[in-house]
Amino acid sequence: MNDDIASLLDLEGRTAVVTGAATGIGEGIAAVLAAAGAHVVVADIDRVGAQRVADDIGGTALDLDVTDPDRCAEVLATVGDRLDILVNNAGSYHEAGSILDQSVESWQRSIDVNMASLFNCSKPAAQRMVAQGDGGAIVNIASVDGLLPCLGTGYDTAKAGAIHFSRSLAVDLAPHGIRVNAVSPGVVPVPTLDRIHSGELDPLWPTDSSVTGLMGPLMKQRSSNVPIGRKGTPEDIARAVLFLVSDASSYVTGQNLAVDGGWTLI
Q1: How many CB atoms lie within 10 A of CB 134?
Q2: Residue 75 and residue 1: Cα distance in Å, rounded?
């Protein structure tokens, strides 16, 4: 391969913070960015899991609750000698189900974890990148549920907000050479879902939930009929993130990349 082409994906010398990276998609992103040469800070509320991942990839583990703006400001302002890449991956789809069942508190939790957290982390990261003076890259992990409703108003709305937040922030930070994009994963099995299916964690839906069109026959048919013929993997999402934070995408900003095997086509 031509060295100039290979160098486009080289992250040597760059520091990346990946939130929610103790498991699943976040862990996959952390591993791929580290393999590309970045020093990766694995930031997660699960400190034990974060340390495990950091040890595996030669990174740094930090305890981070993305719903706490003060803690986010503290972490993003001080971690490493510099900050080049932020991947806002932390999120939760536990506040799912019909609006007929959802409490105000459940709605607020979904907004806090899946959308407000993007502001909490992106502001201090952007301030630091601007002060450094040589640009940077932010990628927000949204969801295909932000494009086509699936899990409920809280989660779906928050993920739609994540997509437009990315677009707005891209315009905001463009004069500083900071690119902002979103990635919307499709059907990607992760350990959390396995724990739900095994009964270790509570189900996403209430046992006696209201009748709803969400996750009905049409939704289930779409989720089980991905055009490309398989479910996604954390590595599929991670490679898309690598593209968006690397020099290979130096002219790409304000975009939402659906990595879904064609899920949103049907």
Answers
A1: 11
A2: 38
Choose, from 107, 155, 243, 263, the residue flagged as catalytic: 155
What does residue 16 show for φ and ψ, rounded to 5 degrees? -120, 135
Cα–Cα distances in angstroms (integers) from residue 97 to residues 100, 131, 151, in the given order? 8, 43, 6
Residue 93 appears among annotated catalytic residues: no
| 93-121 pLDDT tens trace | 888 889 999 999 999 999 999 999 999 99
Q: Give the model confidence (pLDDT) of 216-265 as tens digits.
A: 776 777 777 899 999 999 999 999 999 999 999 999 999 999 999 999 99
pTM: 0.95
Asked if 40 and 59 count as a contact pair (C-beta separation under 8 A), the reply is: yes
Can you count the helices (H) and strands (E) in the chain?
10, 7
